[in-house]
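Structure (tokenized):
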């Protein structure tokens, strides 16, 4: 489950700032996110629009023009900030006249999901590539909702697995035996294999001035490069036909020098985090425990804890570094939380959540 929402919410409580010397600011909570607001600007019962971190807003709109810092940007990323020591997650603005509690104003306000710009090291369109048609069966896009907002669906003490959330780019791989074809894609699109014939075009030879033909071939892209550099991916897929292998590609050429995870320039890693088998997610523990899946799977996301769910431990682990697993990695993006046994909730869907660290959210 992963939705795009900017919901109209009602302020249910206003609390004083924790520093008694701060007189101009107050605190409120929306979906488990603390927000710092100007004292006296709002009251209990007011309708507001809440925009979660890691979305962007259009600075040309009057609702968001106050965020314009004069640097010529068209859009502003909403993130976490600290005001006099208190964290504030996301943005609260007054709801437009005529709005009702629960309205989703994502499209109406022109809000977009923030996507990091391709790394400067990813030359030649490596982080794009040409799109291809995918398998004939449904392969869902992968997305996780934020634990801060949906923590009520996960009980304290429930058996869980916490894994490192890598700051890379989502990937999926599947081998279709009936076609004898390997498919490779990003979170939202499938990618043509580099070197695949696209078309033949006529060009003029710059030396002779004569007309000649030239074959246009699909260029390199990061996802097929990951499949090539991590040579276990295709054999695993071929030995598990029809199963979709989900994971994260990572390295400096994916998200820049701050998130190299120990990879040299041009190296792209891949860590598996899920398997879809005939339209159903395998039990999360089987990724690590069941030889039917784990044999031949040379890299998975790193497990940092397995046991009873503990909210305070989760928040602590999210703020740690990843140096234990990846050389020189100082900032951990966060933690992914999954129940040991696959579970869904009729009100929410699959119980798989992410908790993004404050250290990561403070990066701009």
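Design, position by position:
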């Amino acid at each position: 489950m992963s939705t795009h929402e900017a919901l109209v919410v009602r302020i249910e409580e206003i609390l004083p700032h924790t520093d008694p010397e701060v007189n101009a600011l107050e605190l409120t909570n929306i979906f488990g996110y603390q927000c710092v607001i100007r004292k006296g600007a709002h009251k209990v019962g007011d309708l507001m629009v809440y925009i979660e971190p890691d979305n962007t807003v259009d600075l040309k709109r009057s609702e968001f023009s106050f965020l314009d810092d004069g640097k010529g940007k068209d859009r502003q990323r909403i993130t976490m900030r600290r005001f006099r020591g208190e964290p504030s997650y996301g943005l609260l603005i007054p709801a437009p006249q005529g709005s009702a509690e629960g309205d989703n104003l994502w499209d109406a306000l022109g809000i977009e999901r923030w996507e990091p710009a391709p790394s400067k090291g990813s030359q030649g369109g490596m982080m794009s590539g040409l799109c291809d048609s995918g398998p004939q069966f449904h392969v869902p896009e992968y997305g996780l909702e934020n634990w801060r907002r949906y923590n009520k669906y996960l009980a304290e003490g429930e058996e869980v697995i916490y894994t490192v959330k890598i700051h890379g780019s989502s990937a999926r791989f599947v081998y279709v035996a009936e076609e004898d074809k390997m498919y490779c894609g990003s979170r939202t699109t499938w990618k043509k294999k580099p070197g695949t014939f696209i078309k033949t075009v006529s060009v003029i030879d710059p030396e002779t001035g004569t007309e000649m033909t030239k074959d246009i071939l699909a260029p390199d892209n990061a996802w097929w490069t990951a499949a090539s550099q991590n040579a276990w991916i295709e054999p695993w897929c071929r030995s598990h036909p029809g199963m979709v292998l989900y994971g994260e590609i990572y390295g400096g050429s994916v998200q820049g020098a701050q998130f190299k995870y120990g990879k040299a320039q041009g190296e792209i890693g891949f860590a598996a985090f899920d398997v879809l088998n005939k339209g159903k997610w395998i039990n999360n523990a089987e990724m690590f425990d069941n030889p039917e899946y784990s044999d031949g799977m040379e890299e998975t996301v790193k497990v940092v804890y397995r046991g009873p769910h503990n909210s305070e431990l989760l928040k602590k682990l999210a703020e740690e570094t990843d140096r234990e697993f990846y050389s020189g990695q100082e900032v951990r993006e966060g933690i992914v939380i999954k129940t040991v046994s696959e579970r869904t909730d009729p009100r929410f869907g699959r119980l798989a959540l992410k908790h993004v660290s404050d250290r990561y959210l403070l990066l701009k």
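Reviewer-requested clarification: Confidence is low (pLDDT under 50) at residues 120-124. The radius of gyration is 23 Å.
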